[in-house]
Design goal:
single chain; 196 residues; two-stranded antiparallel ribbon
Length: 196
């Protein structure tokens, strides 16, 4: 069913759902954050994954990964990741997957990306009840490393310096996915084309 979130879907910071795959990362001492947006319609995890990794915003990131990390990828591969046909995509590999959520680790092992879909409580078929809606979650985790001088776990100065940008970028990524889903009927199917 087509989404009704629209390009102006509200993206908010929120607590990690208890017991989620990303919450398990945080319990090991990692930094973790979580953002959520709500859209109209019933949405599967596969639809969310495919939309998230093929937005214009994420395509730019994929271009950067192609040139700086030799990690090319295509929209077709993003859809294959969504459907479970492949477990590696661009700079990430699937670390764990459930019916409604997926956790990916980057090739360095330092970061995790997490997506989750959740029907809103009380959402029904639209007949005598609320129209169906879906919550879309996106979160990230950064795994600490041991400081050579102190021996203590640390996230590193680079991460601390980029934290504000990371938070803004996370919101932009989730908002772009909502916009792509809302306009999915008007988006042409992406050809596999050259790898980005």
């Amino acid at each position: 069913r087509a989404m009704g979130g629209g390009p102006e879907a509200l993206v908010e910071s929120c607590p990690l759902p208890p017991g989620s795959l990303l919450d398990q990362c945080r319990s090991g001492g990692a930094y973790a954050d979580c953002y959520v947006a709500e859209v109209g319609g019933t949405l599967s995890l596969a639809q969310f994954i495919a939309a998230f990794y093929t937005t214009w915003v994420f395509r730019l990131e994929r271009v950067i990964l192609r040139w700086l990390a030799s990690r090319p990828s295509t929209d077709s591969e993003a859809r294959m990741l969504a459907s479970g046909e492949i477990d590696a995509f661009a700079a990430w590999r699937v670390e764990d997957r459930r019916e409604h959520e997926i956790l990916l680790a980057d090739f360095t092992g330092r970061t995790r990306s997490w997506l989750k879909t959740e029907p809103t409580p009380g959402a029904g078929s639209g007949t005598g009840g609320k129209d169906p809606r879906t919550r879309l979650y996106f979160g990230s985790a950064v795994i600490p490393v041991r400081d050579a001088a102190t021996g203590r776990p640390t996230l590193g100065r680079r991460f601390s310096a980029l934290l504000a940008f990371h938070k803004l970028y996370s919101r932009i990524l989730l908002r772009a996915a909502c916009a792509r889903l809302a306009g999915s009927k008007h988006w042409p199917a992406a050809a596999s084309g050259p790898k980005l």
